[in-house]
Write a structure and sequence with these properties.
2 domains, TetR/AcrR family transcriptional regulator, HTH_TetR, HTH-type_Tx_Regulator
């Protein structure tokens, strides 16, 4: 991502970043990602192209920033502890809240961008890397026989699968029910028969 979130940001930059990211999300609810151009984004956000390129390399970079804003919205980086215990469920709850609060937008986006589209793949890759990073940073490798990265990808895939099933598959589910699904899917259920 061209924009460095670690840098101090001016109020003007905050307004500009917000305008571009909100415009992108609105446009995603109206048309496929592939049909959104930088020119159209700039026109809709009411900023010149030069301003866009001050912050982003291209529309994929802006998309990464949109996912970054969502990540910050649910404070994923602030969840502490071992992700296999209560902190993992706290992270899951935050992600559930994110999807729930943006449910209408998600439905609109998916109506124009199928689940196998570049947009959805970009989202899955971004959040898989976020979950993997969070899990890997907090895991206790000495307690695992499986490589930490593999376990992290398993957890992140399970969370995204549940979110997709609930919110994009139109299966109304409470947060409590979703937590049960997570626990059941992540607990070992199969034993080898000799």
């Amino acid at each position: 991502m061209k924009y460095d979130p670690a840098q101090k940001t001016t109020r003007g930059a905050v307004r500009t970043l917000k305008a571009f990211s909100e415009t992108m999300l609105i446009m995603l609810g109206e048309k496929p990602f592939e049909k959104i151009s930088v020119n159209a984004l700039c026109e809709a956000a009411d900023y010149p192209r030069a301003t866009f390129y001050n912050y982003f390399d291209d529309k994929y970079d802006l998309l990464t920033y949109c996912w970054y804003r969502m990540r910050r919205e649910v404070h994923l980086d602030q969840i502490s502890g071992d992700p296999t215990d209560a902190s993992f469920m706290a992270a899951f709850d935050q992600i559930y809240h994110l999807f729930d609060s943006h449910h209408d937008l998600l439905i609109a986006v998916v109506s124009h961008n199928p689940l196998d589209s570049q947009l959805v793949n970009h989202f899955i890759q971004y959040f898989t890397s976020v979950f993997t990073e969070l899990f890997t940073a907090r895991a206790k490798p000495q307690e695992l026989k499986t490589p930490v990265e593999l376990v992290a990808k398993h957890y992140s895939s399970t969370v995204l699968l549940i979110m997709e099933w609930i919110f994009l598959g139109q299966h109304p589910t409470t947060r409590e029910e979703a937590e049960v699904y997570v626990r059941e899917l992540l607990e070992p259920r199969f034993t080898c028969v000799e």
